[in-house]
Each structure stands twice: as C-alpha cells, then as structure tokens.
C-alpha cells in the first residue's frame, strides 16, 4: 500500500536473511478454501484460541516441579532428604523432608495462582464475540471457535480476531480504515483496500456464495509483508498486505467489514511477533545460586576434611566403640576408604543446614508482600485521574528494580502524550506567549527556584492550543507594533497547510484532520487568533477572518490555492501559492529554520537576528519550531514559473526531483514573518524524572519509530540530549545512501549501507575515545536510525556499536521496528551484562519489554498489550522514579540483607557443628538435637528476617528521591558483592568459634554447688541457646529502622526457642530436662550474658568503624538528616516559601534560566507520513501516501460537505 | 502476548482504587502499605560506639571479678595415676597388663592437701582422649529400655551390644557396656574417709530416665567384658555410677563425679588412696586422673568465664579510650 510500509517491508525481508528471528519461508504454500470447513479440515490448521499460560493441567506438576528444581538449593534438599532416609544419616529424615515439601508446596501454589490469572485473561480474549457466517446468517461465536477459511464480519471499533483477508466493506471503493496502535503504536488511521472482485460480498446472502481459494505464504512474523493469490472462479488475483487485516488492529470509520480468516491463533502475525514469555529470574537470584554453589563448595570441603580424618581416626584400639570384625562398613577400621566415603555422606546430611532451606520461601514471601502491598498500594504511584495504581505483575524482580542501569523507553505514549500544542510564537521580532514549558520549569527547579505556574485569565487552552498572551487574542494584535506582520503570520498559519476540516463549520465544533498533529495545532492556533479556516476545496481555502479591517468585524474570505509545494524530508518546508480575492499573489512558506533562512531576501538583518535568537530560545525550551515566511509574486513572474511547474508535474521520469528543482525557483527572496513554537506535550513530570534517573546513574535510551528529527527533539525536551553534549548521528538519510538506493539493487544497497555504517561507527568510536580520554570531555550522545541499526547489529559490527553506545550517556534510536527494539535491548543486556529495563505502552513495545530484564508497561489509554507483557505496570512515566529509586532500591537493600543474613546465620550454625566434629573422632555425631537443627531455620530465626525484608528502610522515600545518587550503590551492587559475603563469612567463623569454644570450655568441671557434671546435650543446648539469641540480636544490628514488629519478632523468636525447649525437653529422652538442669545453675546465666555479647562485639566494632571511617552513601545521608523527623508524607520537602507575586516569580524564573547559545532550534515538523495529498490530485500518477488515509477517512465521514464543495 | 479483546480484562487491572480508611487497625494497614510505620532509627555514631564500649567495660569487669573470685576459691587436687599404677615389669606393654586378669590391679596413691578444704569435697575421675561423643557410641543405647526394661524389646539401636542368648542385655548398648570401673578408697590418717556415692547424678535422670524396676540381670555376661559390672539386685534407677556414666560427655576429655567426702580436710593433711586400676585406657592412650575438689556457687574450678569477662571488659574500655582519642583528635 503506502510507500512507508513497503519500505519497512523491504527491510523486514532483509531481516529474514540477516537476523534469524524470522522463520525461514517454508517452500510450501498454504491453501485455504474460504467458506468451506470440510475442505480445510484435512489440513488441520490451528484453532484461533490462544494460550499464554506456562502450564496446563497435566504439565503443571512435572513442569512446575522442574522449574522448582532448577533452583540448586531445592535439588540439594531433595538429595539430602533421600540421603537422610539411609542408615548413615545422623539425623531423622522427617526433619529434612518436611521443610522441603513445605517449600515446594508454597512455591507451587504461587505458580499455580499466577498461571491461573494468565489463564483467565486468555479466556476473556478467547471468548470475545465475533460474527461468523453460518447458513447465510451472521452467528456470534467466541473467538476461539474461529477456523481458517471462515467468513467473519467485524463491526466498527471491533478488533480483528485473526489475520483476515479483506473481502468487502460498507465503504464505497471497498476500503476500510484500521488503527494499528496495538501493533506499532501509531494512532493514525491506515487504509486497506479489498480486491475489486470481492467488493460485493458484504451481505450474508452474497457472502455465503463466496467460494474462493487462497494460496498464501506460511505463517510468519513479518508484519508488513504478505504474498498470496486468491483464486476465485478460475481467476487468479494477487494478494498484497493491502488486503490483510491483522489480528490486534481495530476497525475505524467503517460500519463493518467482511473478511476470510487466513491465519489463526498463534499463527497470526502479531502472535508470531511476540516472543515466548520467558520466566524471568532476577540477577540477584542468579547470583544467589552462585553463592549457594560456593556454599556447596565449602560444604564439600568441610565434609571432605571430616571424611578423610574419620578414615584416619577410626581404630580398633578404641575398644569401647566395639569395632570388631562385625562392625558396619561406616565404622570398620579394616576398610578405611569405606569409612571415609560413608562418613562423607553422613557429614553432608549433618551439615545440610549450611544451605538455608527457608531462604527461597522467605524471599518469595517478602517479594510477594512487597509487590502486592507496597508497590501496588503506593499512593505515590497512584494516578488519580485515571484511577490507576501501580501493578506488579510478577514478584520475581523487585530487587532488580534497584539495580537498573539502562532504561529503554518508547517515545510516543510513554515520554510524550503525542499531543502537540501551539505554545509560543515570535512575530516580527517579538515573542508572544508567557507559558513556561516543563523543561524550563525543571531547569529552574534544579537551580532551586520553585516556579508556580499561574494561569492568567487570558490563557486559552484547547486541544492543540495552549497559549497565554492577551496581546494576540481577540484582535488585540492590532495594537501591537507590527500588526501587518501579525496579519501575515496568521494568514500563513491559516492558508499554508494540508489540513482538512471536519464536522460543523463553527470554531467550537470543527475538528481538523491532519497528517501530523503539528499541522493541526498550527491551524487551531490560527483559528484562535481569529483566522478560522473552515472549508477546503481542491482549489480554495475559506477563512473566516476577524478584526482584520477593524475591531470586531468578521469576514469570510476565500483564497484560491494555485500551487502546493509539498513537504518532504529533503525540502523540510512547505509552500502554498495563493491568490487573494483582490488578486494579490502570495507564496506562503513554512519550514525548518535552516532551509528558510537560506532563502530569505537580503536586508532586515535585525529581524533575522532577533528571530534566530528566539528560535534558539524556543529550541532550548524543548519546543518544536517552524519559520514562517512569505513572498509577494508578480503575475508575470508567477505565470512563467507556473509553466515550468506544470511541465515538471507532468513529466514521467524523475518527477519528484524536477518538482523540487522548480520549487527552488520560486521559494527564494522570502520575507521572514516569524516563527512558531509547538510544545510536544510530554507526559507529566518526564524531564524531571529523567533528570533524577540520570543523576541516579541510569542511562536512558529512547527507541522510537519516529523520524530522526522528532526523536532528537524529544530527546532535547526530555533533557536526554543538550547542547553541551557531543552528538554522534548515524543516519541512512544521507545523499550517498539515497543515491545508491535509487539505483534499486538490493544487494548493492545492503553492502553499501553496511560499509557506510561501519565507517561511521569507526569514526564515532574514535572520536568518543578521544573525548573520553580528555579530562572534562563532553558527555556523548548517539543518534542512530533503524536502517543503520539493522546493519550495525550485524555480528561483525555489534561490538563496535556496543562500545560506542555504552560510552554514551544517552542514545536515541529512531525508525526502529519492534523487533529491533528487542534486539537493541538484548544487545545491551547480553553484551554489557547490565540490568536493563524497558518501558513502553503499545504492542510495538512488547518484544522489547520481554527482552529486557524488567519490562514496565504504561497502563494508560492505549491497549493493554504492553501491560500484559510487562512485569510492572505504572500509569505514568514519572512513577518510574518512585518505582526504581524508592521501591527498587529498598527491595534491593532488603533482599541483600535478607540473603546475607540467611547466609550468615546458617553458616554460623553449621560451623559450630563443624568444630564439634573435630572433637568426636570425626564420626559425624550431631551436636544438636535434630529438631533443634530443623526448627532453627523454620521457627527460631525465620520471622525477624522477614520483618527486615519488609520494613527495613535506610533513608525515607523522599530522601531516596532527593539523593538519587544513592541508587548507584545498587547499580554497583555494593551490598551483595563477594566482599560483603566474605565479611559476613569471617564474622560467621568468628562467632561460631566463640559459641563452640566458649561454651565447651566453660562447661568442663562441676557445674553447680553439688558438683554435678554436664553431658553432651546440656552443653549443646547451652550452645544452641547462645546461637539463637545471638543470631536474633545480630539481626537487630543490621536494621536501619526498627519498628515494634522487629522487637516483637526478635523477642518472639527467642521466646519461641525457650517455650519449645521447655516443652520438648520433657518428652525427648536425650535432651530430657536439660533446660531445667541448665537453668538451675548460675553458669547458665553468666554464659548467656557473656557469649552473645562477645560474639556480637566483633560485628559491633566492625560496624562502628565502617560507619565512622568508610561510610556508605546512605549512611552519610542518614546522618545529615538524623535529627529530622521521618516525614511520612514524602511531599513538601522541596517546597520553598516564596513571597513573590506570580508575575514577578515568573519573570524571575525566566531570568534564571540558562541562556547559553543553543545550536538546537527544535525544527520538528516531521511526523511520519507527513506529505501532501495534493500531489495525488494534481499529478498524473503518484503513489498512494499515508496521508490519503486521513483524507479519505474524513471524506467518508463527511460526504455531504465534500459534495457541496 | 495477545491482543486484548475486550474491556473486561482491563477493568479488573485498571480499577484498583486505594481507599484510605480510619481506625486503629486500618491506620496500621495504611502505614504498613505506605511503608511509613513508626520506627526508631538507630544511627551508630562514634559517640554511641564509645559509650557502649565503656558501658560494656563497666558491666563486664565486675562480673568477671566476682566470677573469677568464686572460681579461685575452689581447691582442686588432680592426680594422674594411669601410668604410675602400672607395675615396672609391664611398663613396656601396658595393654597386656590391663588385660591380664591375673595381675592384681590395686595401686596406692598419696595425695597432699595444700589448703583447708571444706566439705563437701567432690571426687571426680577424669578421662582424656576418651570419645564418649563418638557417633557409634552415643547412639548405642536404648533410653526406653533403661526406663522400661524388658517391656521394651527393640534394642536395635544398641548395636553391637544389643542381646545375649536371644535376650536383650539390660542395660544394652556400648555406653553401659563400657562402664567405668576403677574404684577408690581414701584413708585419712588411720581411718577410712567415708565416701558418699549417693545423690551424685542429676535428679531428673534418676527419677525419670532410669527405671526403678529394671534390674541388670544379664549385664556383662558376654564373651568380651567392656567395663564395670552392676549389682543385678539393684534397679537401674539406683545405680548412680551407671547414671552418671551414661550422661555422655560433650568432649573427649571429661570428668565424671565419683562420690563425695563429707568431712573437711585440713591443710597439710595426707590422704592415701587405694584404687583398683581396672579400666582399660592403655590401648588407646587415654589418661586417667583422680580429682578431689571443693565447689563454689558456680561449680568447680574453672577460671575461663571470669578471665573472659575481665578480658572482654577491659578490651572494651581500652577500645573506647582509643575511639575517644580518635574522636577528639579527628572529629567528624
């Protein structure tokens, strides 16, 4: 259909070869018999039901268990459980089996619950209604019942249930309009046209007669290509993407269409485009596996030491052990090797506590609560206007949020609202419009000025127009120093455009259909200034002008449009030659400042200079600018030019170039009128959020389908790029490349572009390295477009691209396809091994969202596609700061603490056991009773650590956002490094030595005044008591904030131990009455005071010294704000009292703004598909342009008006 | 991911309002969800570090002094006799001496009392390098049988000393089998010192772990005799030697109480000990010691706790002084 699509289509066919994701085209074609289920039956096409669940009823248990046993720890516990059932085990099997089953059960329930939710969601989709032709009637059936070959009817605003062959529509000419927002995020309508042969099959009676045979390609994931043939009544008609309606798109401006199902369910292009839902695991968790492997290593080492020593130790001389010939292998001195081997296993079961069994369950519980209670319920991420709260869709990735280093963001809908508003203008050297853009506000706030935006009474705000300056409104411009220029300015806005009016011809009700929202904004601006463009015919433009001749007078004026010199990306300007009713011939021109300035007439340098200054000012404020100019033409001159124009227009070869050349002849000696500034409305708080995030050390990449200029503009607007940065631009829109492209040889194009890209990359990389080598080199920014990116992602160039992009603080990729977004994401994810986050709102972001470590969906107005694929959903981009800097950081800190603490407590406990082994002839005798050992993890130390996982806060939320730099600790993974783990391990060893040796040494000899002696179980109970108390108190020492729940849980755990032993020692023979015996001695109390304090003293000194001399960043912040009460409101910290009047304030704020000379002026009149539609009317042949879509759409919905014209 | 067909699914995810409610519990829930529970935020500033160390010192040193004082007040006479009690001709082969039942095992030791020892004076025997905590040894007992005797038949845990002639040995297992059987008699001047051998085991053991009606009728009847024999006419609950022995020790070097002398001993008294050196520690090189000791409120002599307290306390004080100096010299 459109050139746009065919271009992308071309690139995607190249992709088949190069990038591998596209399945190779199967040689066979699929043949579909439309409206004939029996004929299709033997081929067994897949049904239309889809399933995004991970498991089904039968695979749940095996697959779910498999998933669980992917965790090293669970595998290990299975092994231990089996081992502990053998006689060589020193412990009871129940004590290992029960905790493992518990762990598995909890995890499986959680998995089942999550999958159930996915299943329900699928069911909703699968059961959506669709009308299918059955017996000459439309029957409503659920989507899932749809089969290949069925004839379906889709009504206006309905979604296509499968990939359909478009047969007929209610529109004349067999066209329909579709919105592809779910596929590529573009909201402008696309046109699809049925084959003329099938136009009539729109009624059920007719449609029932349709018996066609479709031969088409096998299902594939290329959205923009489709080849096939429709064989109908022995006629073969070629099919193109123009006849294909993709699942996921919706029907617009068309009452209904009739189509035949071609691809169903998982074979539809949109489904083939979505990658498999990967089960994401956080990086921390993977690192945890490494830690656990290390623990295995040390476990094995400990066991090996014990085993070898036991082989050496065992000897018949210990007659009291009864080691005669009949002794079992594990104790038989004549087989020392056997003794060692079996002791190895004995010791493995004995030391199994070194792997914390409840760790995974605890972490899962903590994360689950963090998600469901903290993230989902956070009022600071709650968007009141849309009543949307944040939503954590998986609970696996909380702590990953605290370590993100790269953010990949979509533009439209994520950073911007895709809403253009006329914001300011400069007319005849005077700036109009008082508004302050968000960027200016952000800049001012960063300089410590609070700008309160007060709407003055004169401010007008409607869609496309947000302007606050009474000097231009209601004819007040007549009193301005240069009213004539103002008049030209307004007329230029009202005349020089390609907008179509729609609806009632009244200023309130009219809507403008424009290819780009910028154009609509300009025309809306003209309307508000009193130059109301209300009607267009092919040759005339009707404008209702107010206050022109004198105040209050309203006049309808018709301008004859003689020529339209359309916009394209080389010309970067657009002109209209019009004739006033009085015969005055004027050329109005608007375009990028660079091209306009080249073509200005000499003289009036002051105005040029002033206007240029204004342009720069607008540009740095993040506004999109256009220059307006006009030229009076003399009739003679025009006539001679028009001849050349018509000639060029009707030439068959190279018409476009010739037209451009002719245009050059007349677009010169222009007179500058002024410039407009349009705000590409960012989402609320985006620049501030980006600023905060980049202070936090996060690098933000924008991946957008937009054109390069637009993308750069937004990057400026969002503070991603500024003029101090060195920019590298790698574009395929160079003359050299275009020239080769025009020759049309695909292979040559590919080679050439690849070479060019390689050259560019090399050059940029060298420059980048040069910049980085200097001390205060500028920050770097990279801008690359999709076509170049495609070649740059080639394995041979990949490394170079990665090197370059990682050195850049921001990267903008424009004109990228959804798949490329995913590729860029995985390039960084795999290549740089950094944590990546993707954020987007449309279906085109889905693959990117899934490719990144963390996917964030914007749950806004567009479809729920992105949200469904995401891990977290937020309502606004700005909540990302809360999500990452507050929740992510806290989660990271908490999980790190939980993990290291678990590691510590189990290591300490196991090591006491290990030291005991040395004193038992390496026999593997257990030091503690087995129930002590198994309940240690499950009861005596379980709850407090969960409290830390939930409640620990180093600094308050507002401080987290005030000092985003704190986040860098997470990126560097400061709290879960091997060094940290090593420190904990050292203290574990220290503490375990204290526990074991202090208790055993002090227990020798009589232990009360009657001289009685302690036995093994008395000593071990004493030691265990010390361990439980110490380990619980140690927890309090790692807390940054201690709530009463900490006290309750820590106290409760210690109490639980005592209660347990009080009861247990009455029933159990070996530890019978030990606690009562112990507590009857003074020894117990003296030891219980000494041992925990000595054990904790080491940690205490370490913590004190560390905080004193080597503080972490968060500790410094803590101490800065030590005496402030914890503000729970989080707001108001940055508010500064000010007594200025609003006006003073504003002017002061503006005065404070940075005034550096800006090279960037923000030209951005360049949305996708902005090309004039007049070419099609006036020329002999012109390829259909996307613009036609909108025109046709408006024509259809307004048939009467167009006829009248 | 698939196309979202209708609005139903989006409604469920989108409309999640967060009501803020009142009330004690609800206030807590809201604070919990907004993560703003009231909390104390300890910040370990240098001042705190110094103060806590000082406090620690001031608490620990007195406790240490008291404890050490108590421990030091205990008088202890330790006599190792295993080597000296072997006759000259057997010095080269102690194992054959101990295994040769024909050689008389009696031996006489002379102990000198250095200071006045106040009654009760406890007699311990101490074994070194004796692994009472070996896994094979520890589990080779049947607590059920000790309590219920033949009513409890499952003596599989007692291997290898579980049965004799088809009947379970009472008490079964290695621990009982290897019962310590050296005996001591003490002569003070001319008279024999009365040694009270009752009430030396923990009361809970006597009353609840060893049966009052369980008699060791077939104990030590096997081919290999491990150690002491028991009077078959006395129930296990009254065999306090056995009860003490069967509370297995934690470490391979341990003391076990033998009896109590209930007379004061004056300084420079000489006590003659006649002992029967029956127990075989020679094969594995274990030491046997006889210990006579008084007792304090803290038990026997053990300086460890007191020294540890004083050491930790004084280190804390020194550290706090060091920190104080650093703090004064180089304040933050």
Automatic annotation (TrEMBL), chain A:
Main location (coarse class): membrane
Keyword GTP-binding annotated: no
Catalytic activity: ATP + H2O + phospholipidSide 1 = ADP + phosphate + phospholipidSide 2
Domain P-type ATPase N-terminal: 32-96
Sites where the protein binds ATP: 410-412, 519, 567, 590, 624, 704-706, 815, 821, 844-845
Alphabetic keyword roster: ATP-binding, Magnesium, Membrane, Metal-binding, Nucleotide-binding, Translocase, Transmembrane, Transmembrane helix, Transport
Residues the record lists as binding Mg(2+): 410, 412, 841, 845
Highest taxon in the source lineage: Eukaryota
Domain P-type ATPase A, first and last residues per copy: 129-188
Transmembrane segments: 291-314, 337-361, 898-916, 936-955, 976-999, 1011-1033, 1045-1067, 1073-1097
Top-level EC class as recorded in UniProt: translocase
Gene3D superfamilies: Calcium-transporting ATPase, cytoplasmic domain N, Calcium-transporting ATPase, cytoplasmic transduction domain A, HAD superfamily/HAD-like
P-type ATPase C-terminal domain residues: 867-1111
Active site: 410 (4-aspartylphosphate intermediate)
Biological processes annotated in GO: Golgi vesicle budding; phospholipid translocation
Similarity comment text for this entry: Belongs to the cation transport ATPase (P-type) (TC 3.A.3) family. Type IV subfamily.
PANTHER family: PHOSPHOLIPID-TRANSPORTING ATPASE DNF1-RELATED, PROBABLE PHOSPHOLIPID-TRANSPORTING ATPASE
Protein name per the record: Phospholipid-transporting ATPase
The organism of origin for this protein: Hevea brasiliensis (Para rubber tree)
TrEMBL record, chain B:
Parts of the chain that traverse the membrane: 47-68, 304-326
Primary location group: membrane
Keywords: Membrane, Transmembrane, Transmembrane helix
CC per GO annotation: endoplasmic reticulum; Golgi apparatus; plasma membrane
Subcellular location: Membrane
Pfam families: CDC50
Family indicated by similarity: Belongs to the CDC50/LEM3 family.
Name recorded for this polypeptide: ALA-interacting subunit
UniProt organism field: Hevea brasiliensis
């Amino acid at each position: 259909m459109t050139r746009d699509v065919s271009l992308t289509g071309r690139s995607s066919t190249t992709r088949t070869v190069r990038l591998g994701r596209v399945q190779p085209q199967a040689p066979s074609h699929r043949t579909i018999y439309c409206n004939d289920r029996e004929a299709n039956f033997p081929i067994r096409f897949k049904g239309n039901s889809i399933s995004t669940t991970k498991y089904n009823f039968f695979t749940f248990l095996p697959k779910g268990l498999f998933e669980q046993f992917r965790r090293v720890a669970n595998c290990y516990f299975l092994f231990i459980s089996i081992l502990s059932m053998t006689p060589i085990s020193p412990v009871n099997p129940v004590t290992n089996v029960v905790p493992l089953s518990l762990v598995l059960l909890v995890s499986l329930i959680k998995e089942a619950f999550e999958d159930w939710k996915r299943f329900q969601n699928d069911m909703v989709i699968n059961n959506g209604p669709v009308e299918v032709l059955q017996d000459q009637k439309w029957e409503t059936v659920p989507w899932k019942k749809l089969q290949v070959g069925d004839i379906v009817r889709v009504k206006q605003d309905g979604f296509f249930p499968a990939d359909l062959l478009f047969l007929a529509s209610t529109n004349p000419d067999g066209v329909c309009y579709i919105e592809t927002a779910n596929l590529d995020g573009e909201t402008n309508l696309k046109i699809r046209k049925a084959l003329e042969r099938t136009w009539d099959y729109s009624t059920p009676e007719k449609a029932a007669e349709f018996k066609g045979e479709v031969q088409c390609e096998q299902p594939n994931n290329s959205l923009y290509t489709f080849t096939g043939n429709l064989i109908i009544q022995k006629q073969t008609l070629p099919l193109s993407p123009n006849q294909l309606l993709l699942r996921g798109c919706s029907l617009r401006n068309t009452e209904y269409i009739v189509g035949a199902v071609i691809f169903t369910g998982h074979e539809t292009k949109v489904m083939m485009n979505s990658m498999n839902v990967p089960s994401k695991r956080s990086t921390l968790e993977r690192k945890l596996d490494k830690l656990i492997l290390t623990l295995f290593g040390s476990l094995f080492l400990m066991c090996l030491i014990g085993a070898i020593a036991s082989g050496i130790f065992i000897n018949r001389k210990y007659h009291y052990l009864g080691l005669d010939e009949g002794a079992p292998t594990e104790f038989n001195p004549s087989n020392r090797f056997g003794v060692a081997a079996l002791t190895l296993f004995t010791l493995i079961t004995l030391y199994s506590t070194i792997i914390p069994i409840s760790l995974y369950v605890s972490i899962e519980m903590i994360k689950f609560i963090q998600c469901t209670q903290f993230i989902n319920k956070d009022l600071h991420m709650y968007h009141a206007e849309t009543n949307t709260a944040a939503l954590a869709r998986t609970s696996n990735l909380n702590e990953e949020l605290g370590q993100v280093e790269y953010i990949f963001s979509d533009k439209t809908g994520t950073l911007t609202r895709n809403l253009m508003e006329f914001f300011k203008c400069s007319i005849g050297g005077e700036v109009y419009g008082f508004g302050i853009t968000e960027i200016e506000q952000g800049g001012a706030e960063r300089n410590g000025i609070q700008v309160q935006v007060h709407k003055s009474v004169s401010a007008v705000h409607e869609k496309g127009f947000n302007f606050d300056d009474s000097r231009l409104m209601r004819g007040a411009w007549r009193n301005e120093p240069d009213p004539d220029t103002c008049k030209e300015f307004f007329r230029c806005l009202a005349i020089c455009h390609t907008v179509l009016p729609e609806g009632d011809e009244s200023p309130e009700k009219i809507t403008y259909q424009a290819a780009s929202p910028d154009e609509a904004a300009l025309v809306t601006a003209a309307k508000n200034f009193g130059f109301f463009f209300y009607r267009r015919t092919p040759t005339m433009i009707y404008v209702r002008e107010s206050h022109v001749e004198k105040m209050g007078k309203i006049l309808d004026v018709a301008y004859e449009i003689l020529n339209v010199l359309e916009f394209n990306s080389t010309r970067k300007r657009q002109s209209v030659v019009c004739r006033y009713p009085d015969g005055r011939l004027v050329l109005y021109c608007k375009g990028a400042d660079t091209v306009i300035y080249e073509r200005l007439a000499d003289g009036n340098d002051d105005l040029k200079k002033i206007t240029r200054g204004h342009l720069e000012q607008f540009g740095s404020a993040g506004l999109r600018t256009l220059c307006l100019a006009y030229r009076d033409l003399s009739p003679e001159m025009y006539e001679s030019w028009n001849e050349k124009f018509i000639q060029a227009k009707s030439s068959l070869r190279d018409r476009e170039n010739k037209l451009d050349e002719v245009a050059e002849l007349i677009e010169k000696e222009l007179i500058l009128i002024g410039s407009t500034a349009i705000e590409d409305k960012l989402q609320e708080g985006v620049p501030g959020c980006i600023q905060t995030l980049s202070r936090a050390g996060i690098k933000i990449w924008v991946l957008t389908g937009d054109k390069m200029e637009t993308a750069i503009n937004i990057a400026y607007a969002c503070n991603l790029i500024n003029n101090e940065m060195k920019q590298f631009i790698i574009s395929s829109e160079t003359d050299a490349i275009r020239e080769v492209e025009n020759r049309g040889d695909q292979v040559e194009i590919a080679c050439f572009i690849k070479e060019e890209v390689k050259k560019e990359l090399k050059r940029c990389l060298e420059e980048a390295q040069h910049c980085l080598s200097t001390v205060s080199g500028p920050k770097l920014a990279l801008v690359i477009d999709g076509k170049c990116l495609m070649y740059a992602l080639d394995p041979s160039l990949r490394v170079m691209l990665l090197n370059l992009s990682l050195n850049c603080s921001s990267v903008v990729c424009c004109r990228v396809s959804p798949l490329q977004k995913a590729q860029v994401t995985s390039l960084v994810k795999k290549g740089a091994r950094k944590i990546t986050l993707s954020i987007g709102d449309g279906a085109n972001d889905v693959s990117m969202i899934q490719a990144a470590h963390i996917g964030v969906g914007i749950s806004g107005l567009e479809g729920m596609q992105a949200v469904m694929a995401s891990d977290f959903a937020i309502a606004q981009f700005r909540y990302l700061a809360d999500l990452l800097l507050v929740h992510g950081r806290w989660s990271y800190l908490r999980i790190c603490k939980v993990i290291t603490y678990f590691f510590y407590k189990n290591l300490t406990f196991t090591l006491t056991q290990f030291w005991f082994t040395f004193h038992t002839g390496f026999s593997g005798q257990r030091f503690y009773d087995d129930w002590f050992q198994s309940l240690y993890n499950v009861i005596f130390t379980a709850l407090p650590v969960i409290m830390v996982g939930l409640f620990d806060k180093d600094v308050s939320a507002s401080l987290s956002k005030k000092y985003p730099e704190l986040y860098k600790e997470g990126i560097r993974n400061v709290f879960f490094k091997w060094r940290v783990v090593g420190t904990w391990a050292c203290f574990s060893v220290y503490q375990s030595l204290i526990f074991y040796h202090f208790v055993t040494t002090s227990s020798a000899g009589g232990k009360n005044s009657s001289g009685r002696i302690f036995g093994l179980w008395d000593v071990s109970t004493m030691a265990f008591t010390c361990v439980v108390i110490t380990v619980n108190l140690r927890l309090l020492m790692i807390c940054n904030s201690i709530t009463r729940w900490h006290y309750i849980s820590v106290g409760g755990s210690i109490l639980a131990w005592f209660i347990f032993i009080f009861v247990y020692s009455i029933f159990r023979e070996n530890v019978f009455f030990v606690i009562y015996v112990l507590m009857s001695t003074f020894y117990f109390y003296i030891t219980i005071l000494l041992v925990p304090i000595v054990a904790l003293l080491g940690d205490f000194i370490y913590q004190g010294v560390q905080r004193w001399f080597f503080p972490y960043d968060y500790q410094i912040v803590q101490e800065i704000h030590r005496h402030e009460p914890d503000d729970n409101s989080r707001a108001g910290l940055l508010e500064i009292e000010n007594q200025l009047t609003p006006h003073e304030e504003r002017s002061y704020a503006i005065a404070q703004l940075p005034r550096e000379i800006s090279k960037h002026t923000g030209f951005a009149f360049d949305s996708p598909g902005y090309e004039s539609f007049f070419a099609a009317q006036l020329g002999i042949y012109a390829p259909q342009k996307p613009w036609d879509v909108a025109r046709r759409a408006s024509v259809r919905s307004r048939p009467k008006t167009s006829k009248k014209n | 991911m698939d196309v979202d067909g209708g609005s139903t699914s989006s409604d469920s995810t989108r409309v999640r309002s967060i009501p803020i409610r009142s009330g004690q519990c609800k206030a807590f829930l809201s604070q919990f969800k907004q993560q703003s529970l009231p909390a104390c935020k300890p910040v370990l500033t240098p001042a705190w570090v110094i103060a806590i160390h000082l406090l620690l010192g001031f608490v620990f040193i007195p406790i240490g002094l008291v404890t050490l004082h108590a421990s030091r007040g205990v008088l202890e006479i330790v006599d190792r006799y295993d080597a000296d009690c072997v006759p000259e001709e057997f010095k080269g082969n102690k194992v054959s001496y101990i295994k040769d039942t024909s050689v008389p095992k009696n031996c006489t030791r002379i102990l000198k009392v250095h200071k006045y020892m106040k009654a009760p004076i406890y007699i311990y025997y101490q074994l070194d390098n004796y692994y009472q905590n070996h896994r094979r040894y520890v589990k080779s007992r049947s607590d059920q049988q000790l309590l219920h005797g033949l009513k409890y038949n499952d003596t599989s845990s007692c291997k290898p000393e579980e049965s004799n002639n088809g009947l379970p040995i009472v008490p079964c297992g290695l621990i009982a089998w290897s019962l310590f059987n050296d005996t001591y008699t003490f002569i003070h001047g001319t008279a024999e010192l009365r040694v009270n051998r009752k009430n030396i085991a923990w009361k809970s053991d006597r009353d609840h772990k060893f049966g009052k009606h369980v008699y060791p009728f077939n104990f030590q009847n096997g081919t290999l005799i491990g150690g002491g024999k028991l009077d078959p006419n006395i129930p296990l609950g009254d065999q306090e030697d056995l009860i003490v022995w069967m509370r297995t020790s934690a470490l391979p070097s341990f003391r076990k109480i033998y009896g109590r002398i209930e007379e004061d001993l004056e300084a420079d008294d000489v006590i003659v000990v006649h002992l029967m050196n029956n127990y075989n520690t020679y094969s594995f090189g274990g030491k046997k010691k006889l210990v006579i000791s008084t007792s304090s409120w803290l038990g026997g002599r053990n300086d460890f706790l007191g020294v540890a307290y004083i050491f930790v306390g004084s280190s804390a004080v020194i550290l706090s002084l060091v920190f104080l100096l650093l703090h004064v010299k180089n304040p933050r």
